[in-house]
Amino acid sequence: MDKFDKLTAVAAPMPFINIDTDMIIPKQYLKTIKRTGLGTALFSEMRYNDDGSENENFVLNKPAYRNANILVAGDNFGCGSSREHAPWALKDFGITCVISTSFADIFYNNCFKNGILPIVVTPGELDKLMDDAERGANATLSIDLETQQIHGPDGGVIKFEIDAFKKHCLLNGLDDIGLTMEKVASIDAYEASQSETHPWA
Fold first, then answer.
1. How many CB atoms neighbour CB 134 within 10 A?
2. How far apart are CA 62 and CA 50, in angstroms?
3. For residue range 80-130, what is the model confidence (pLDDT) as tens digits?
4. What are phi and psi of 98, to 5 degrees?
5. How far is it, in rounded angstroms, from Cα 25 to Cα 198?
6. Beta strands 157-159 and 149-151: pairing type?
7. Quick one: CATH architecture of 6-174?
8. Local structure of residue 5 (DSSP, 8 states)
9. How many CA atoms lie within 13 A of 112 on its CB side?
10. Which of 32, 77, 91, 118 is the most buried (most CB within 10 A)?
11. In whole angstroms, what is the distance from residue 131 CA to residue 155 CA?
């Protein structure tokens, strides 16, 4: 998994509440078990017209936000079904940080397992960040995970809280497999001792 330390990038505003996982990646795209290739289908029902052309009014289709790496979204982001394809699609598009006042629990935890930083802020802080994000090409935010700070384009700073273990995993690029591999020496030692004491096993 990619490490997450610092990120300075354009932030796209999505001022809607209850953006669920079916909006993020509709059910017809769930047949794949690959983590790549879903970026083109991200928010597809809002992003494309019925004829397959781009909806020019959708934020990620606007020139200023086509390369956005941060989403500033309304309350309860990632609700709905527990599909891990949702963070896969976000990451494949290039979104590596989502800022909201709250997240659905399963989506929130899935983000950390896929190299995405979900940040919880207060409603007042979200309003300020949403205002920053609506500046188009000037909507650049800087995220520093180590210091747990968001730096706005005008020099304002917002401090955010994060679980220490989840922070450690993101800073070091550790998913569940990576965490297991950190213990490989202990696992090998245990297996060797078991072979010596229980050779028949």
1. 16
2. 18
3. 998 999 999 999 999 999 999 999 999 999 999 999 999 999 999 999 999
4. -125, 130
5. 50
6. antiparallel
7. Alpha-Beta Barrel (3.20)
8. S
9. 21
10. 77
11. 14
